[in-house]
């Protein structure tokens, strides 16, 4: 490999071997980053020629990270760190690729690494930092509370550099969006313990609420990693038994994303949950992830229309007609339907005309912690029930 690299190099460039199969080429002659890309291409070419000439029967890839050392010349350790990152990015791009170092990518990566550590620490410390927020799902016609979707939150101390914490005052917490931390939990497998914790906690909270508001339900989101790597059916049955919650008061929201390669396994879980009386909910309907064929293959109890689809239906006649037909169709099939993402009265009025069974959205409430949910939603629901009784 070193010989091939040397054949591709230009005068003034130097080759060093870092460790095992890693090399560094330095160029202090003032050539540019695009010259570095050309060099990379020549190295690939030299290696391809060698492999062909020697009829070498193996897959051989060569990945490169390129860094513009201008302004960074004095910090060898820093450059090494950046290079390690750049090489890794090149490999992530599918190997046999080169990647040009970008500071923003590096900072995003450092941020993700830090978050990953914080998540691991939280899991190892009784899930401290994780919280479950609940968002109500309302009956469209009766305006009554039917269920709550459990949504995960993660809190970390505010950046100490931002607001010096020498004062000794407890540092503020900032909330990280699930869109940011769920993918990290999935990648690292941490979603498995966290997901179990969430189902158990949410089921327990629901059981408490039922003392005041009988029939109250809770809905949890399951990630494809949990489905693929754990026995979700067993976990769910265990929780229901332990807590004493009836299965029809637990809803499991699933999207089709990621399931395609494990379709039979997925279907088995889906059927098992239904057989046990748990509500199975097809989430994000109308996005790329959940489509018509799911209705036939999976026969959910109920479907949720994603907010992105709701927005389109509110702003475009064709999409509005499409949603009307979907609602009619799901009703004809005997399925329940929830429209997600209603924020204003006028949106509510427009969507109500289509007669979906349930509505979820900021208009009724944003997701909130269990205690607040109890005060703001369970209390009034109980009062309303007394009035009608
Ligand atoms: P999702 O399952 O589609 O959840 C609904 C999201 O829409 C929630 O965002 C909710 O706060 C938001 N939403 C509800 N009503 C409105 C509205 O009227 N307007 C607007 N703008 N947004 C509304 P959130 O809580 O940030 O969750 C984002 C996604 O993260 C969820 O999308 C779900 O895919 C994922 N997620 C959250 N918690 C969990 C969890 O415990 N497990 C797994 N696997 N995924 C989760
Ligand atoms: Ca959901
Ligand atoms: Ca959604």
What would your notes on this structure say?
The chain is built from 14 helices and 14 strands. An eight-stranded mixed barrel has the order 5-6-8-9-10-11-12-13, surrounded by six helices. Strand 3, helix 3 and strand 4 form a beta-alpha-beta unit. The protein is of the alpha/beta class and 389 residues long. The termini are far apart. Bound molecules: ligand C2E and calcium ion (2 copies). The site of one calcium ion has 5 residues, from strand 10.
Number of extended strands: 14
Strand order of the largest sheet: 5-6-8-9-10-11-12-13
Helices and strands: which structural class? alpha/beta
Average of the residue pLDDT scores: 92
Helix count, DSSP H or I runs of 4 or more residues: 14
The percentage helix is: 40-55%
Low-confidence stretches: none
Basic shape: elongated
Strand composition percent = 15-25%
How are helices and strands ordered from N to C?
A: HEEHEHEHEEEHHEHHEHEHEHHEHEEH
Give a list of the ligands: ligand C2E, calcium ion
Alpha-carbon distance between the two ends: 83 Å
- Main beta sheet strand tally, sense and closure: 8 strands, mixed, barrel
Radius of gyration: 27 Å
